[in-house]
Design goal:
Length: 419
C-alpha cells in the first residue's frame, strides 16, 4: 500500500508528518511526502521520498503581508482572512495541483486537519480514503477555547464551543475560494463551512499531542484519537559542534531563547530585548537565530549564538526554554521537563502558552507586543527559582517520554486502512 502525506506550513507542521512517515515506512508501507519545495532536504535526510509543492511558506511569511500578520498576532479574525488570502492567492491552486499529482498512485491520503476540505477534495477525485492529523486541536469543544481564538480565557462551556466553530469558519474562509475553484475544475459541488466540520467528524482524526497535556474532551466524536506526541528519538544522538559543547561545559545550564521566524519583521528589537534580559538576570544564554527571527553578530561571553541544533538534544541541557509557543517547540520543551516562558506571536501560540500555564509548567505568557527586557528577566528568574514548578514539569516530562505516539498512530492508521 502506498500512502501520500500532504503537508504545508512551517517546519513545526512538517516535522510531525515526517516522523509519521518514518513510522509508516518501518511498518512496511510505502510513503510519499508532498510538501513545499523548501523542505526537500528535511525529507530526504529522514529517508522519505518527496514530491515538491510549489510555494515556499518561509518566503511567503517573510514577505510584507506575512510580516504584518505576525506583527498583528492575528488578533482580528476578519483581517486574518484577508491577509491569508493575499498570501495564499499566488500559490494555493498550484499547491492543490501538485498535491493531486502526488496522489496519482496513492492508495490513501493523510493530511493536516486544517487542510481537511482540500484533502477531502483530492481524496474524492482519486477515490481513496482520507486520514487527518493535527499537531494542535481543531475540533470545537466545551473544554477550552479554540486555538487561534483571540480570547484565550475559559469563559464557560458555550463560549469555548462557539469559539471552535468560529475558528473553523475563519480557517475555512482563508482558502475557500481556492478550494472551490479547484473543485469546479472537476465538476464537484462547492463546499461550505459545514462540510469542513463534517469531514473532521467523519474520517479518522489523530491528535499528535500528549493526553497528559490535553485530555481528550468527552464531547469529541469517536473518530478522534489522541496518540501522544510524535518525536524523533534518533535526534537525541546528535553530535554537537565543538564550540557549542565547550560553551555548555563552561558553567551552569543556560537559558534557551528562540522565536523561530516570528521576530523576522523586527529582529534587532527582539535581539536587543533578549540580550538585555539575560544581562539583567545574570544568566548564561543560548540565542537561536532560527529562520532569521533574531540575529546577533556580537554577543557577550555568557551568550552563545546558535544557528541550529535539534531541540530533543538541546533542551534537556537548558535551565529554561523561552520560545514563541509553536506546537512542536512546546512539545520538545515539555518532553525535556524544562519550565517554559512563552512569548506568543500568532494563531495557536497563545493557546499553547495558556496550556503551559495551566499545567504549572510556566507562567502567564508574555505577548510579543508587550515583551520588554524587564518582563523577560523577571519571568526567567521566577521559573528558575521555583522548585515546585520544576518538580511539576519534570514529572510531566517523564510522562511524555513514556509515550509511543508514532507507533500508536501507525497502528490506528493501519487498522483504519485495513492493512
Amino acid at each position: 500500500m502506498c500512502i501520500t502525506i500532504f503537508a504545508a506550513g512551517s517546519q513545526g507542521d512538517i516535522q510531525p508528518c515526517i516522523r509519521l512517515a518514518q513510522g509508516l515506512q518501518k511498518s512496511g508501507l510505502e510513503v510519499l511526502l508532498a510538501a513545499p519545495q523548501n523542505f526537500v532536504d528535511l525529507s530526504h535526510n529522514a529517508g522519505i521520498p518527496f514530491h515538491p509543492l510549489r510555494g515556499d511558506v518561509q518566503q511567503i511569511m517573510a514577505g510584507e503581508t506575512g510580516q504584518k500578520y505576525m506583527q498583528s498576532g492575528g488578533a482580528n479574525p476578519i483581517q486574518s482572512i484577508l491577509a491569508m488570502r493575499k498570501m495564499l492567492g499566488p500559490v494555493a491552486l498550484q499547491m492543490a495541483e501538485d498535491a493531486l499529482e502526488a496522489c496519482r498512485h496513492a492508495d490513501a491520503l493523510i493530511t493536516l486537519a486544517v487542510f481537511a476540505p482540500l484533502g477531502a477534495t483530492i481524496a474524492e477525485i482519486r477515490g481513496i480514503p482520507l486520514v487527518l492529523v493535527e499537531p494542535t486541536p481543531v475540533l470545537p469543544t466545551r473544554d477550552f477555547p479554540a486555538p487561534g481564538w483571540p480570547i484565550q480565557k475559559n469563559l464557560g462551556l458555550w463560549h469555548n464551543r462557539l469559539s471552535g466553530f468560529a475558528m473553523l469558519e475563519v480557517i475555512w474562509q482563508w482558502y475557500r475560494p481556492f478550494v472551490n475553484e479547484f473543485r469546479q475544475r472537476f465538476g464537484l459541488r462547492p463546499l461550505r463551512g459545514a462540510d469542513f466540520y463534517r469531514t473532521l467528524t467523519s474520517v479518522p482524526l489523530l491528535g499528535a499531542y500528549s493526553p497528559a497535556v490535553i485530555r481528550r474532551p468527552q464531547d469529541w466524536p469517536g473518530n478522534v484519537d489522541i496518540t501522544g506526541y510524535w518525536f524523533d528519538k534518533a535526534q537525541t544522538n546528535w553530535q554537537p559542534p565543538a564550540d557549542l559543547q565547550a560553551f555548555l561545559a563552561q558553567g551552569e545550564p543556560p537559558v534557551y531563547i528562540g522565536f523561530g521566524s516570528m521576530a523576522g519583521r523586527d529582529p534587532r528589537r527582539f535581539t536587543g530585548i533578549v540580550l538585555e534580559a539575560l544581562a539583567r538576570s545574570g544568566r548564561r544564554g543560548i540565542l537561536a537565530t532560527g529562520w532569521g527571527g533574531m540575529n546577533a553578530l556580537d554577543v557577550p561571553e555568557k551568550v552563545f549564538n546558535l544557528k541550529q541544533a535539534p531541540h530533543s538534544w538541546l533542551f534537556p541541557r537548558m535551565s529554561v526554554v523561552v520560545h514563541h509557543g509553536g506546537a512542536g517547540t512546546t512539545a520538545e520543551g515539555l518532553r525535556a521537563g524544562k519550565p517554559c516562558v512563552i512569548v506568543p506571536f500568532i494563531v495557536d501560540q497563545l493557546f499553547w502558552g495558556k496550556r503551559i500555564q495551566a499545567l504549572g509548567a510556566g507562567l502567564e505568557p508574555i505577548p510579543a507586543k508587550r515583551l520588554t527586557s524587564a518582563r523577560l528577566a523577571v519571568a526567567i528568574d521566577r521559573v528558575v527559582s521555583d522548585p515546585t514548578m520544576r518538580e511539576r514539569v519534570e514529572a510531566l516530562g517523564r510522562s511524555i517520554r513514556s509515550e509511543s505516539g508514532v507507533q500508536t498512530a501507525v497502528a490506528i492508521i493501519r487498522q483504519h486502512l485495513g492493512v
